[in-house]
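All the exercises in this workshop are built on plain-text protein records. Instead of coordinates, the fold is spelled out as a row of discrete tokens. Once this layout is familiar, the rest of the handout is easier to follow. The record below serves as our worked example for the rest of this section.
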Amino acid sequence: MKILSITTATNHLSVALNDGDKIFEKNEEDHRNHSEHLDPLINELLRENNLTLKDIDRFAVAEGPGSYTGLRIGITTAKMFASILNKDLVGVSTLAALANGVSDGVIVSELDARNKNFFAGVYRKVDGKLENLVPDGHYHIDDLINKVKELNLPDQVIFVGSPIDKHHDEIAELLGSDNFVQAEGDNQIHAGEIGKLALNKEAVDPDKMVPKYLRRTQAEIDWHNKTGKAFGSDSDYVEEV
């Protein structure tokens, strides 16, 4: 199965072609212009592998969390491809993709959300298989580390994603241990990992896929205040608007 994967969730733009055990990936550090760079990068990847979009069996995309604008760019592109070509579409957690790029162990996959808040999830990887231990969410550092501590696991904790250097002492105090490290490598989300996780996931209706922000946007808060409607799932506001 040929899977074309995309992530525009952060300032790291990544596209990949997963074809069996082979992964062909292109990455670009782009702080502002994913909308301008995504299509050319996809075209370059396909051209180098003598393929067209019609040759792709499944499209996969990082569905969140991440940058509000970035997520919309990648998801809109993947939805368009899948819908027009009548191909499978799969959404993959940004945090799961981050964790999947780490060697076996207990993994805190996290993206700095400022003011000591993180988009994060806790995973365990054994023999290459990923298990979610703490659901992806928006956590204050105290809450996140306490959830890790409550797992009461003897393993060294591996943080992957945003640098944790400035929080090292606080994490050690909350965890009651300094048995944790930052993952080796670039700590970026790679589309190839999205493709791996997308292989066995159930496809979704392109019309129903929406970003999983894991935190209310200001627009949602304004909508709630204006309409008086209760907050529901991440998709409620997006679908109505």
Remarks:
- Confidence is low (pLDDT under 50) at residues 237-241.
- The longest helix spans residues 68-85.
